[in-house]
Design brief:
The complex is a heterodimer of chains A (371) and B (412). By secondary structure, chain A is of the alpha/beta class. Chain A is built from 14 helices and twelve strands. In chain A, helix 7 links the parallel strand 6 and strand 7. In chain B, strand 5, helix 6 and strand 6 form a beta-alpha-beta unit. Classes of the chains: A alpha/beta (371), B alpha/beta (412).
Chain lengths: 371, 412
């Protein structure tokens, strides 16, 4: 029987059984939460219960949760909805942040992918009050940003802070009020919930105007009939993911084995705090596309970068911002574990990756000798 | 077949609010389930089979939706629902062409998300003409034609009204728009799957669809965007560039698959279902008319989807009626605004007087409505309306031939 290991949880994580059960029940029920009759009120109660569960995941109050169609919409709404014209974004943000402002000023990152706080402080000085958008953890490398520090600097300069926590929520503790951020984007399908649902968390008192027009759903902050089953699934996933991901031993075993097999392989961002599930590693001399295909043939799913752009063969902007040379960036793949990853999956990957590395290096060796 | 019996428990009220939302068809749920579990990949992941499998599901659904409206599958974009589709269509087209044109034509009975989008555009410098409707709820084509100027970029007219179910003359509107070289957008949330739609024959350039109005899931919709001649839009949501750049964000595969399946079932069963609903609609109306004098149907009965009735019960207090008929899930207007006590702006636009607008009920019939449910609903309505009228001094006066409008009420 061929091995099968899904190690692309940062692209999307399979739905948790408890989530599916909750959703199927909600999908079988009728009712629009805005209707006043019994069916409507039952749907409303489901949405309210899930809102409390999602709020619990990020230390927010239920009234601070605005359900959206996903992380992309949440980040778009945050960047457009604060009224701040001047926007500062880190160089490693997701495209949903980078592309939603046409004239954003870019905060550089260091070689480990961490935002340059001194540069941020200089940028914040003087000029008009800004909106700062710095992600909690990067989707390609898993590198965790010093968000609390960013908030401290921003507060001193009267700036607002948005944090894209799509990859962090459910993996490591995220606390809206503890961090002091004003806006937080989260997505259900990255933590074992369904696709098509996410939330923008808006701290009570933070300015926010939605540009989505229609019925007054979500307290006038996001029009459109609520995706009840999606919201219910998000709630169940949030509750299940509250404790974070316990994958650090899996990741450590994986990284140790790969580096032992290929001492020249480099793990990007290894020197700084990262998510417990993400490894971005360059296999010297082997293009990422080749690795991904070879691993897929061996039944192992990984990716050559972010899923949204993985169809295109462009160089990773994240690695470029970290100063990784193009030749090396082209050899980087992303391995990401999740709630259902087991040691067998890791071993499967290790065997396939080592096998490929040996094949390539040996044929290089033979070619060198033949020549 | 009554698949609804699998869903509804006996102690639940009879669901007659199909314009607010529809229960999901169990066949749709069946189609969705694999994409929640073993086919869970991200459809944008191009590097492994999980991604391809999900993409296959999404693309099949895109084709199913395209066939429902006579479009090419490349012209269908997934959104989070009809509200987003309407926002994207109207704002997207207005923003894109704003250097050349700055005028939008719509109608006064559109869904709130269309009207609010237009209001928002007015605040940012666009001009909007809100075309009135006639007493039957249909627009006057000559008035529409005159409203279009050389500054008009688009006309947005809903296909079927959400409160009164009337069907606008889409083919004629499309012809006028094509002739005047303006884009034609139609909010087909209440029409798709219920009446035949053909974007080619009707010259429709942009068309909005909702999943949960056609027995599919909530949280998913689609926007048809014509490719030839090409309609261009400024996206509402940007990021990874999915959906040809019109709409970024990871596609919710199970929801896309559900919408596709729902569309296919609707297309396949449309004729039979329309005939069945027409009979139920007639049964409901005749049943009520046989026992209750002075009830009025709002909106044209002929140009109307068979799954809707909107009836004013004269001299009955609307709220009391709603409270009385606890065994029926109906609404007094659109769900989005049903928590407010304002009379429906749609009924007001037809010229329905305020008191009559206050006593109106929207009754939505659908795939799982049975003859027996209709009969129970009729009996329940007759009982409560009769009882409330017996208690009403206004009813007494009107029965005695007093014109209530002529009474001068003393101020307290």
């Amino acid at each position: 029987m061929p091995a099968f290991a899904y190690l692309d949880h940062n692209a999307t994580s399979p739905i948790r059984p408890v989530v599916l059960d909750a959703m199927v029940e909600a999908l079988r029920a009728e009712g629009n939460p805005s209707s006043v009759h019994r069916a409507g009120r039952a749907a409303r109660a489901r949405v309210d219960a899930a809102r409390r569960q999602v709020a619990g995941l990020v230390g927010a109050r239920p009234s601070e949760i605005v359900f959206t169609s996903g992380g992309t919409e949440a980040s778009n709404m945050a960047l457009a909805g604060t009224g701040r014209k001047r926007v500062l974004v880190s160089a490693v943000e997701h495209e949903s942040v980078l592309k939603s402002v046409s004239r954003a000023e870019v905060i550089p990152v260091d070689h480990d992918g961490v935002v340059d706080l001194a540069a941020l402080e200089r940028m914040l000085a003087g000029s008009e009050p800004a909106l700062v958008s710095v992600m909690f953890a990067n989707n390609e490398t898993g590198v965790i940003q010093p968000v609390a520090e960013v908030v401290r600097l921003a507060r001193a300069a009267n700036a607002l802070v948005h944090c894209d926590a799509v990859q962090a929520a459910g993996k490591v503790p995220v606390d809206l009020h503890g961090l002091g951020v004003d806006y937080l984007s989260i997505s259900a399908h990255k933590l074992g919930g369904p696709t098509g649902i996410g939330a923008l968390v808006v701290r009570a008192g933070a300015p926010f105007v939605s540009d989505r027009k229609g019925g007054g759903q979500e307290s006038n902050r996001r029009a459109g009939t609520e995706n009840v089953a999606g919201i219910v699934g998000f709630g169940a996933a949030a509750q299940a993911a509250c404790g974070g991901l316990d994958t650090i031993s899996l990741r450590d075993r994986l990284e140790a084995a790969l580096q032992a097999a290929a001492p020249m392989a480099r793990i990007h961002g290894a020197a700084v705090p990262r998510l417990p599930n993400t490894t971005c590693i360059s296999m010297p001399g082997v293009k990422a596309e080749t690795q991904v295909m070879a691993l897929d043939l061996a039944g192992v799913c990984v990716s050559a970068g972010a899923a949204c752009s993985s169809g295109k063969v462009t160089r990773s902007a994240v690695l470029a911002a970290m100063g990784v040379e193009p030749a090396e960036a082209e050899t980087a793949i992303r391995i990401s574990c999740g709630w259902n990853t087991v040691f067998e999956d890791i071993d499967c990957l290790i065997a396939a990756w080592k096998g490929l590395y040996i094949r390539v290096t040996q044929s290089d060796f033979h070619r060198a000798h033949a020549a | 077949m009554n698949a609804f019996s699998q869903i509804r428990r006996n102690d639940q009220p009879i669901y007659l609010d199909y314009q607010a939302t529809t229960p999901m068809d169990p066949r749709v749920l069946e189609a969705m389930l694999p994409y929640f579990t073993y086919k869970f990949g991200n459809p944008h992941s191009r590097s492994h089979s999980y991604g391809w499998e999900a993409e296959e599901g999404v693309e099949k659904a895109r084709g199913q939706i395209a066939r429902l409206i006579g479009a090419d599958e490349k012209e269908v974009i997934f959104t989070s629902g009809a509200t987003e589709s309407n926002n994207l269509a109207i704002r997207g087209v207005a923003e894109f062409y704003k250097d050349r044109k700055n005028h939008i034509v719509t109608t006064v009975t559109e869904h709130k998300c269309v009207l609010d989008t237009c209001r928002h555009l007015e605040q940012s410098g666009f001009e909007v003409t809100y075309v009135p409707v006639q007493q039957n709820g249909l627009i006057d084509l000559d008035v529409l034609r005159e409203a279009i100027t050389d500054r008009t970029v688009a006309v947005s007219v809903m296909a079927v009204n959400n409160e009164i179910g009337v069907i606008q003359p889409l083919a004629e509107i499309g012809r006028i728009c094509r002739e005047k070289k303006v884009f034609f957008h139609t909010d087909a949330a209440q029409a798709a799957g219920k009446i035949p739609l053909d974007v080619e024959a009707m010259n429709i350039d942009l068309l909005s669809i909702s999943g949960h109005k056609i027995y599919g899931p909530k949280g998913i919709g689609a926007l048809y965007v014509r490719r030839k001649p090409r309609v261009r839009l400024v996206p509402l949501i940007v990021g990874g560039g999915q959906e040809r750049g019109f709409r970024s964000g990871t596609l919710p595969t199970p929801l896309c698959v559900g919408l596709g399946e729902a569309a296919e079932i609707c297309l396949k069963e449309m004729d039979a279902e329309a005939g069945r609903l027409k009979k139920l609609q007639e049964r409901m109306l005749k049943g009520l008319q046989a026992k209750l004098p002075e009830i009025y149907v709002n909106g044209d009965l002929e140009h109307r989807i068979p799954g809707n009735l909107n009836i004013s019960f004269a001299h009955v207090e609307g709220e009391s009626l709603m409270m009385g008929i606890k065994g029926l899930s109906v609404s007094s207007g659109s769900a989005c605004t049903s928590a407010s006590l304002e009379p429906s702006y749609v009924l007001r636009a037809l010229g329905v007087e305020e008191e009559m607008a206050h006593t109106s009920l929207r009754i939505g019939l659908g795939r799982f409505t049975t003859e027996q449910e209709v009969d129970t609903a009729v009996a329940d309505l007759v009982h409560h309306v009769t009882k409330l009228r017996e208690m009403s001094p206004l009813w007494e006066m009107s029965q005695e031939g007093i014109d209530i409008k002529s009474i001068e009420w003393a101020a307290h």
